[in-house]
Amino acid sequence: MGIHPQDDLFTLLRQVRTNQSDTGSQEQKWIINHLSDPKLRAMVPHLSIIALHILSALQTQNVQTGIALAESLGVTRGGITRAAKKLLQYGLVTTEKLPNNQKNIYYQLSPQGRTIAQVHDQMHQTLEQRFADKINAKYSAAELKIVTSFLNDVIKIESNILN
Fold this sequence. Notes:
Blueprint: H1 5-34, H2 38-43, H3 49-60, E1 64-65, H4 66-73, H5 77-89, E2 93-98, E3 101-109, H6 111-138, H7 141-159
């Protein structure tokens, strides 16, 4: 462990950030293991985490524009466009334009896209339940309140890094 307690915290925070990028492949593995259709299983390794989250977002609200998806998922429009191209390529979403508005592209789930979205959502529900069970078994409500306060402070500091 580090000389100063904050050194240990910085190390752990870096590990959390690093694990976030690794989570993608873990998400994909979980989804692949829980899909029955071999064609869909073969598609999942080619989908980004953003693409999987687009499918889930479209499951909640079936028709959305790229702009709305970018805002709701907190990613750039370019990120949505790149992921949506892949989803279109695999037939997991369809697009349409309104006759009176040719500018906006509206995305919708295909039946196969809905299947992957449902399994992706199941994965998140399972993960959240396991996380809650383990955390609640180990830490008291008071300890969790301190951790929550700490993480909120980290978020505030990082979001104001340029100020």
